[in-house]
Automatic annotation (TrEMBL), chains A, B:
InterPro entries: IsoCit/isopropylmalate_DH_CS, IsoPropMal-DH-like_dom, Isopropylmalate_DH. This is 3-isopropylmalate dehydrogenase. NAD(+) binds at residues 77-90, 284-296. Pfam families: Iso_dh. Its EC number is 1.1.1.85. PANTHER family: 3-ISOPROPYLMALATE DEHYDROGENASE. The record marks 144, 194 as: Important for catalysis. Residues 5-357 form the Isopropylmalate dehydrogenase-like domain. It catalyses: (2R,3S)-3-isopropylmalate + NAD(+) = 4-methyl-2-oxopentanoate + CO2 + NADH. Mg(2+) binds at residues 226, 250, 254. One of its GO terms (molecular function) is 3-isopropylmalate dehydrogenase activity.
């Protein structure tokens, strides 16, 4: 029997309640596929600040190091927004985990599920043509981590600075992630940059062109970030894989998520070169609806599916979860935010959606 | 009689043909408002490269220096895309002009005109709630111009870097532009940043908060760039003035333009502290449709209106142009890209739209 150990970091807000549903789903695939996934829960985020004095306690980090993957919930909330930036949940926990485990390859799929076209904020004819994009975002370099970063001087002369910085090796490895992913999709990579202004983008173009030679079956195009932002709205169906630097990927992936109109259905993977990864929902901790049992657990459940696929090598189990999710949505078992006002009384609870997915596995 | 001198830089692609219509409109307001606007045409962009060896010849720059304002067309095209970056039209002409004249304050209004809601790529109910945003973009600092910027090393160790850099003084003056503009609008400033990651953004927040004290009638909110990109699509009506750094303003202003679905109707102003400015359409040189007499001249005509308002102090003339444009659109005198396929045979030519606006002044 294949045995795995994962670190479960549920975090704040709706994190714990949607994680409970993902655990039900993991139980179901353990049974059906004869695998064992040992789960150790660790504190993270605001909860960890309140109970252990910091957003990423040493025991949590150690627990992650001893695991095959991290299943992450969501962190943060107004309660911790007044802390100094370095101590806040997002930065102290999420950015530190990305950097510590060298999770450079961030995959953020965004698609409109069949039957849910009306949720898209796009005009009906554009939504009907489809959104099915995979954003491949570089996650451990660029302006997020480049040095120097700081401030100097006094009064009006105070100057702040951040450094966008990329090495050829950093660009090369994320480009490979994008081309590999495209080979399993519609075989097109749109590399997003600002090569008319940024030197980093020019190196990005050069390296991407070079890597493209190794994937003759995949088409490569370059697009400026400002134009990409527009084209996504006008004609999202033109995009398959979008390859982005850290900052541009932050922007583009959120735009793609919004275009689907169903953020609660989107998961993401952040992986290093050894198959280790952190898997988390695209949405935030949503403190306003936490504890009411109405949050959508699908993104968390699909995070578990991505984990099975990419870190645990259990593609069949991942396929089963994905199919069960599609079926559950098609059967109309939906949380309230996916329903229009007239049908909101038919909303399923967080647990009902989780149970429906388990039944279909 | 008030007399002014302006530099007319028509540029490439559709630039010259839409500029011809803007000149007709300037003739009309000269007559009606008893002002004189002397116009000197200078080469710029790809045209200047072909004929004078560089995108911004010294005579052009000198001509601009001797003028009250620059009326700019559009530049660039595939023909010049293979030149080294520094010599290309966008960089060598546009970025140099911005920097040379310290045109730090870039105003980019985007709105859906009455009757043209169906052009918006947004879902009908969202488009109906309206888009009417003024992006105030810092234009002469940030990662566009920050030093150091370059590359070093060899092979896989090659590293490229760009510096995002802002002084308190630079942030303060653009914040004032935004708050002043908001006082004449719906009195709300949404300052776009990435303060959870960038030190520049933290200084940006501090200074913006400080400046806000001087405008107690204007509401200030801070929003992360990733969230702003999403909220604009979900609920654009929540935004009035969006205050952005150079890079974020590039992205957000193009997103706003696309949300209206009518880029050919949008103009922009780039001004310094002395009232001098460069005025240009939001769209590009559109080489694919150049010379056919089908390009929309409205953005160029509204650029002339902004010039009259902001650099020449002729608000009444600007109001007359704006009203004539609204009337022309309402009367259905529209270029082809504003019409659906069924009505495209009713398309007016570039010159017909220009003439219709002149008639209504
Ligand atoms: C919380 C924040 C630092 C983070 C980022 O910018 O990467 C988030 O927006 C994301 O996209 O995961
Ligand atoms: C052409 C390019 C350098 C320019 C910019 O990025 O500022 C353009 O996109 C704009 O928005 O005016």
């Amino acid at each position: 029997m294949s045995e795995y150990t994962i670190a479960v970091l549920a975090g704040d807000g709706i994190g714990p309640e949607v994680m409970a549903e993902a655990e039900k789903v993991l139980n179901a695939v353990e049974q059906r596929f004869g695998i064992s996934i040992k789960r150790n829960a660790y504190p993270v985020g605001g909860y960890a600040i309140d109970n252990h004095g910091e957003a990423l306690p040493a025991t949590t980090l150690l627990g992650c190091e001893q695991s095959d993957a991290i299943l992450f919930g969501s962190i943060g909330g107004p309660k911790w927004d007044t802390l100094p930036l370095e101590q806040r949940p997002e930065r102290a926990a999420l950015l530190t985990l990305r950097s510590h485990f060298d999770l450079f390859s961030n995959l953020r799929p965004a698609k409109i599920y069949p039957g849910l076209e009306a949720l898209s904020p796009l005009r009906a004819d554009i939504a009907a043509s489809g959104v099915d994009v995979l954003v491949v975002r570089e996650l451990t370099s660029g302006i997020y981590f480049g040095q120097p970063k700081g401030r100097e001087g006094e009064g009006e002369d105070t100057v702040a600075f951040d450094t966008m910085r990329y090495t050829q090796a950093e660009i090369r490895r994320i480009a490979h992630s994008a081309f590999k992913a495209a080979q399993y999709r519609r075989k097109k990579v749109s590399s997003v940059d600002k090569a008319n202004v940024l030197v980093c983008s020019r190196l990005w173009r050069e390296v991407t062109e070079e890597v493209a030679q190794e994937y003759p079956d995949v088409e490569l195009e370059h697009i400026y970030i400002d134009n990409a932002t527009m084209q996504l709205i006008k004609d999202p169906a033109q995009f398959d894989v979008m390859l982005c630097s850290n900052l541009f990927g932050d922007i583009i992936s959120d735009e793609c998520a919004m275009l689907t109109g169903s953020m609660g259905l989107l998961a993401s993977a952040s992986m290093n070169g050894e198959g280790f990864g952190l898997y988390e929902p695209a949405g935030g901790s949503a403190p306003d609806i936490a504890g009411q049992g109405i949050a959508n657990p699908v993104a968390q459940i699909l995070s578990a599916s991505m984990m099975l696929r990419f870190s645990l090598g259990q593609a069949a189990a991942a396929d089963a979860i994905d199919a069960a999710v599609v079926q559950t949505l098609a059967d109309g078992v939906l949380t309230g935010e996916l329903l229009d006002t007239a049908n909101r009384h038919k909303a399923a609870t967080t647990a009902q959606v989780g149970d429906a997915i388990v039944q279909r596995i």
